Each structure stands twice: as structure tokens, then as C-alpha cells.
Prior knowledge:
Blueprint: E1 3-9, H1 13-30, E2 34-41, E3 46-52, H2 55-58, H3 62-66, E4 72-80, E5 95-96, E6 100-105, H4 111-114, H5 124-135, H6 137-140, E7 149-154, E8 159-164, E9 171-174, E10 180-184, H7 187-196, E11 205-206, E12 211-216, E13 228-231, H8 244-247, H9 269-296, H10 314-331, E14 334-336, E15 342-344, H11 345-351, E16 372-375, E17 378-380, H12 382-386, H13 390-400
Antiparallel strand pairs: 1-4, 1-10, 2-3, 2-4, 5-6, 6-7, 7-8, 8-12, 9-10, 9-11, 12-13, 14-15, 16-17
Helix pairs in contact: 1-7, 7-10
The protein binds zinc ion.
Amino acid sequence: MCGLAGMAGDITLAAEKVFRDVLTFNSIYRGRHSTGMAVVQRDNSTKLIKQLGNAIDFFERNDALQAINAQTKVVIGHGRHATRGQITRNNAHPFLFDNIVGAHNGTLDNKHDIEGKDEFFGTDSEALFNLLDKEGAAKAVPKLKGAWALTWFDYQQNTINFVRNDKRPLWFAFSEDGKILFWSSEVWMLETAFYLHNFKYKAPFQIEVDKWLAWEVPAVNATFPRAKMRKLEGAPERNWNYNYSATNRGSYSVATPYWSVKQQRFISKEAGELERQAEQKAKEEARKSNEAEDAKGEEKPASNIVTLPVPTTKGLFETIADACKKKVERFDNEAPGPDGTILDREGWNRATHNKCAWCASDAEWEHRDEIQWISQDQFICHECLSGPDGDVIKNIATSYGV
Ligand SMILES: [Zn+2]
């Protein structure tokens, strides 16, 4: 699982605060192995900042804090939970190519099909964006198999783009004045961040399945125009029972807290029931309005998207904010393990008992985000990786499984 977060348009300081929280929620709840963001300025110059570990540590970096300014028009953020590929900074999102910069939530099943001859990428996601860069979305997406929610900025078109299939979520919301667009993998993350910063916004929507949405990024002080939308499906899949949890070997090994059973949300039972009823009603209304629009035969904007009604009571938001803080404390006792697992301290001590495969020194808990796992019980320590021969060691370790 990974998380997508971002914003585009006339970025303000208030918007930046909202974005930081949305990325942090995504990082804590959906992927803490690495955090990254691409910051695109009005002149298209782009700063890519990635680091191992969660977004809270990430935003302690001066360059991460200072990258976003009055000249920024797009910020694409990502919290990674590694499923395919090593946990390294190179494999962190976003990925920058000639024409696009973007981030992916999901896992592809056909990485090797989409890699060109003599091409090799560290992750399925990087291979995906390479294909998107070379061929454009209209040709690239129909070649994909697996799960995806994609966000990318197109330098030629000056557009911010979204497409997802039914295996991954992605939500967006505009500021009340229509000048800033925000997005996140989960809707409560947007709502909570807006609430915490007293930020006025329009109702959030989920990106419709198999629809490509592209918004031109407006000039300073202008509002977003209507999005361009077209159908865009991946490659047909064989109709076996696709079981996400069974194939996702990189899932969390920690017990799922009781409040996150339903889509990692920690709403009370009563609020959940209210929300379910309201969601049902909204779906019904959306269906009716679609039928009405279909009958009129008019061009449809990004409609027939189901609006998930949002908990708006102050108490509920505060509960969310509190729970987030608690969760952060709890995660201080965890570490990334081999194959994308999360280990507690005891489990991590066991997994590292063989010592560094290169220099045979002990693993250090405070550097747990910086070691590289090469098998279930083998790792390379942070000192070997960060030394002058770090890249060479990493390559050898990866190729031969030292
Ligand atoms: Zn070492």
C-alpha cells in the first residue's frame, strides 16, 4: 500500500500546510518506507526530494520545507510502502522523466512486458512512468495489468493528470475559490487537514474508475477550468478471483488496530452507519442525476462520481487528529523489515542477528530506516551504504544477493 498526496494551482502558505498534513497522513497510514515529493515551479523547473522514512521526518529537512514557495504550481507527493523493489531512495516516488513527473499507488503485474529492450527499472512504478513518458497515457495505460492510481504533471500540456482502476482509491477537492486542487488516496485525509487548518473547500470527489482526468494548471490568481476526461482502461485481465491481500506479500505484519478495519478509517460505529446510509443515498442520487443527464444527451463533466458524505462534526475530526498523534508514537517502535514487512523491535533484532553482510557490524536501531534488506535475514548496514563504495556495494548486494 502507498499513499498519494498533492496540490496544484495558486499555492498559498495555508495550502502548503494542508498539503503537509495530507502527505503525513498518507505516509503514516499507507506507506512509511519512504517519502518523496516533486515541486514544479511556474517556469517548469522541478525539485525532486526523496528520503527513506516517514513524512514527519521528511518535513524536518530544510530543503523539503523551503522547496514550496509563491512560484510553485504543482506538488506531487508520495508515501511508499515497498511491495516490488528494494526500499531505497532511488526507488522512492515521484519519478521524473523528460515530459512528465509522477507518482503511482498500486502494483503492476507485468513490469517486464512494459520495459523496453535493454531497459531495467528498480520498480514497476518507474517502468510505468517511463512508458507513460515515451508513449503518452492513451497508449500506455491500456498496456498495464495490476492495480493503479496515477498522478502526474505533463510539462508540454501544463496539465495535472489522474487515472485509476478499481483496485486503488484517489480523491480530490478544490479550495472554495476554485484556485487550488488537492488530492489524496483517502478522503478523510483531505477533510481532516482542511479542518485542522480551517481551510475552506468544496466537496471532495473520488476519481472515477478507468477515467483519465486532465486539468490545465491555471495562471496565478485564476481558477481551474473544467477537466478534460476520457475513458482509459488497462489491459483486460483473466477473470479469476483476484485476491489483493493474498498477492500482496508486502502487507503490514502488525496487527490491524480495531478502528482501521474498514479502509484504515477510525470512525465510530455510529458515524460509520450514518456514513454508510448517506453514501447509499448519494449513490442513488448520483445514479438518478446520471440517468437524467444521459437522457439529455449532454456532454458530461466529471460527474457520476459518487460523493462520499463527510463527517463534519468537530468532535469526530478531533478524534481523528488525536488518533493520528497516537499512531505516530506507536510507529516509533517499528522498523522496515525484509520484503516490505514492518517489524517491532524484538522482531527486528531477530532479523538482524546475522550482522551486516558486508562489514559484519551490528545493526543500529536508530538507523533502521537506512539499512538495505537483501534477504529474510541479511542486510547491508547504513555505514556501508553511505560510504564511498556505497553504490558499488548496493549493486553487488542486489545482483548477487550477498
Ligand atoms: Zn556494513
